[in-house]
Design goal:
This protein is an alpha/beta fold. The chain is built from 6 helices and 5 strands; from the N terminus they run E-H-E-H-E-H-E-H-E-H-H. The protein has one domain: HUPs (Rossmann fold, 3-Layer(aba) Sandwich), CATH 3.40.50. The protein is globular, with a radius of gyration of 15 Å. Bound molecules: adenosine-5'-diphosphate.
Length: 164
């Protein structure tokens, strides 16, 4: 039986905290689907097409060992998980604030679909503070984001910052 995992997120943009979770999640499943949320309620810096393209670039090194697919999705994450045959949902946990949010989402998801198990991976201490929102803010204010994102994402952030 193929174990399919879903790692959903807005990935606006993908950063080192996300890629660390991906690198660890591929060890747990046979196939990992990265679900790039179309509508998250948050205001996005990157378009859906850009976010998908950036995620594709970032996962290239992990493709060697495990099948990884990047798919945009909208609507309920549990419905998307079922659609793609994922029995495992992967989430990253940074802090207590993440825990409270994730705890309520997971509790609701359990009510929606009992066959999908959420697996939490604790953020690597080196990446605990990284959040897309902060990375965007730093980039827009002209700060150096080298430590938080890949060189390609850094360039894309600089291009957005120069345009604004
Ligand atoms: P962000 O919170 O950075 O905007 P997303 O909404 O795309 O990111 O989050 C997708 C998933 O990645 C969530 O489970 C989130 O908790 C996790 N995640 C985000 N940042 C990190 C990090 N620095 N380390 C580990 N997991 C993270």
């Amino acid at each position: 039986m193929t174990r399919v995992g879903l790692y959903p997120g807005s990935f606006d943009p993908i950063h080192n905290g996300h890629t660390d979770i991906i690198g660890r999640a591929v060890k747990l499943v046979d196939k990992l689907v990265l679900g790039v949320a179309v509508d998250t309620g948050k205001s996005m810096m990157f378009s859906l097409e850009e976010r998908v393209a950036i995620v594709e670039e970032a996962i290239a090194p992990f493709r060697v060992s495990t099948e990884i697919v990047v798919l945009p999705y909208k609507g309920l994450t549990t419905l998307f998980a079922r659609e793609i045959g994922a029995g495992i949902m992967v989430r990253g946990l940074r802090a207590v604030s993440d825990f409270e949010f994730e705890f309520s989402i997971t509790a609701m998801n359990q009510q929606l679909d009992r066959d999908i198990e959420t697996v939490f991976l604790m953020a690597d201490p080196r990446h605990l503070a990284i959040a897309s929102k902060l990375v965007k803010e730093i980039a827009l204010l002209g700060g150096d984001v080298t430590k938080f994102v890949s060189p390609s994402v850094k360039d894309r952030l600089s291009a957005k910052a120069n345009r604004s």
